[in-house]
Amino acid sequence: MAVSFTLSDHQKQLKAAARSFARTKLRPLMERVESERDPRTRALLLQPVFAEAVSEGFLRGLIPAPFGGTASNGVDAAILIEEWAAESPDFFISFAGPLIALGPVYEAGTPEQISRFVSPFLADEGSPVAAMAFSEPTGSANFAAETPAAGIRTHAVLDGDEWVINGHKAWASHLPGWDGDGPEIMTITCRTQAGVSVIVAEREQLAGRIEVEEYYDLPGLRGSLTTRVHLKDVRVPHANLIGSEGDGVRLTLNAFMASGASIGAFATASARQAWSIAYNFAREEARGGLSPIIDHQAVSDVLADTKGKIEAMRLLSWRALDAVIAQDPDGPELALHAKIFGSEAAVEVITALVKIVGVTAYDTGFPILHHLLDAIAYPIMEGSNTGVRRRQLQRIFSAPDYDPLSASGLTEIG
Ligand SMILES: Cc1cc2nc3c(=O)[nH]c(=O)nc-3n(C[C@H](O)[C@H](O)[C@H](O)COP(=O)(O)OP(=O)(O)OC[C@H]3O[C@@H](n4cnc5c(N)ncnc54)[C@H](O)[C@@H]3O)c2cc1C
């Protein structure tokens, strides 16, 4: 395994372009989003900036090169995610729908399906969105459970050459699309006669078939378009089934692998921002004492411990995203560590930093608490660490041929 942590010239340019876009476009956008009370109105504020990001080629940067995009490695993805999530994780969640929703298409789609479902996201204009419709309002941790448990409840029934899909979906960004007629594609985890399956619905099949039952008013990630919807008699060609009937559990779990690893980069971004805020406060504020509070050992110790954790989170998320995108067999284990460790470390780090700032942090006008409200989502989104992610690690560890050194590339020879 070659190891280098020096950014290439291309990666330095990517970081500069991503940071510039984040600071000039996303920062002012987020100020407007924060002050808008209605969840739908504030999510729609993102659309013009979304279109600008598409025109600058960032969306193609999320599509792997073999499928027509320009994404070539996981570290590039980690750099983009961290820079954008530092200013607006909600924007990146909105933008990165294809990262999850196209996962099953890349894994098991036919060449015709790949071409049809990927093409809207290779555009250099407009604001195409994708939704991975897995979660349901009644729960998803046990989606693969068989009767008498409910498991996944959305179902698809064949009628001639079409699937007829009915059910309720929630939480996935952009389930109704910008205008209520659906995203460009919705990848739907559902029950068919042969088990859990994955079927892609396109916008023309979704239009008029989505009833929005609620716009969730999230405490953090305020610009996310997050809803509960009723899919009513969505009719989709039989040819939109991905893989075979019954492949849905594997395809769904795999779809969340890259996005799970990316949570490590989101978590790093929130923690990095909170650290800078607390650090500047500690250097500038004496709080009535003789010297800035950073001179107190207790304050400095927290800065030291939290900075070390942030560096570890970043490296793990780079490693995990690199492994997942390179389809390294150890990618799933690394992605799960990046997701669980990164998300829980971010909440711990920001909570510790809030304590060194003290009471000032509790004023919503002071810019640290909103990073905690964003970060608190990371242990529960993309599969909660309690209900989903640790169980996936348990399964990996339970395999008879599991090698604990393999994820580090240190398997013994011979
Ligand atoms: C901002 C945001 C974006 C999201 N984006 C998407 C998306 O794009 N697509 C999508 O489909 N979903 C999305 N989600 C939902 C997300 O993936 C959830 O993690 C998922 O719905 C599973 O939630 P859960 O694990 O809490 O499951 P639930 O089924 O709601 O379970 C609730 C809790 O019960 C306990 N539990 C249940 N069963 C078990 C068990 N067998 N073992 C141990 N504990 C158990 C756990 O504590 C679990 O957290 C998003 C959520 C957020 C907040």
UniProtKB/TrEMBL annotation:
Location of the Acyl-CoA dehydrogenase/oxidase C-terminal domain: 246-386
Alphabetized Pfam families for the sequence: Acyl-CoA_dh_1, Acyl-CoA_dh_N
Species, as recorded: Leucobacter chromiireducens subsp. chromiireducens
Domain Acyl-CoA dehydrogenase/oxidase N-terminal: 8-123
InterPro entries from the UniProt entry: Acyl-CoA_Oxase/DH_mid-dom_sf (IPR046373), AcylCo_DH-like_C (IPR036250), AcylCo_DH/oxidase_C (IPR009075), AcylCoA_DH/ox_N (IPR013786), AcylCoA_DH/ox_N_sf (IPR037069), AcylCoA_DH/oxidase_NM_dom_sf (IPR009100)
Cofactor(s) named in the record: FAD
Protein name: Acyl-CoA dehydrogenase family protein
Keywords: FAD, Flavoprotein
Keyword Flavoprotein appears in the UniProt entry: yes
Gene3D superfamilies: Acyl-CoA dehydrogenase/oxidase, N-terminal domain, Butyryl-CoA Dehydrogenase, subunit A, domain 2, Butyryl-CoA Dehydrogenase, subunit A, domain 3
Top-level lineage group: Bacteria
Family label: Belongs to the acyl-CoA dehydrogenase family.
